[in-house]
Specification:
179 residues; mainly alpha; 11 helices
Amino acid sequence: YQAVNHIRPDFRPAWTGLLTAYNSLKSYQKALDLAEFLVKANPGDLEVTASYAIALDGVERKEEAIKQYKAIITKNPGIALIWGNMGWSQYGAGKYADAIISSRRAVELDPKLAYVRFNIGLLYAVQGDMAMAIKEYNEAIKVAQPADYKGAVDDIRDALKKQSDSSALKEALKLLKNR
């Protein structure tokens, strides 16, 4: 991508491909630097704005990410992935009620988004509501692929780093590790 960008700096697919690659590799600062350039060059571009929000979230600028997701949703309210990503940023910002609302909207739009369903379970587990967490995890399990479990388990482990005494998170981890 970088070679193409050097040869054809106006070739948008190479720029957006590089941005997606940085986000996928969790090179969020590189993604953010590139996204800030691309947002200025392509105002209103849905793909660029969504990647910008992902990068903002990745560098822990949760409120700014949420703002970007809301801007996208204002113009494109039917994109489940954007609702799901906003829910994740809201979770990271500690806005659990908002995160549940956004995540539920995502699964209304696309009921097969297992990662979002797992996120809803996590949201209940971090709040200590294991009954609701189990309900949501069981819904996620119905649509999950084997790869989805790793992300869900990793997210529970990350939450346990902050709430090491949470019995609900420990129970959630046990539930999903046994799958």
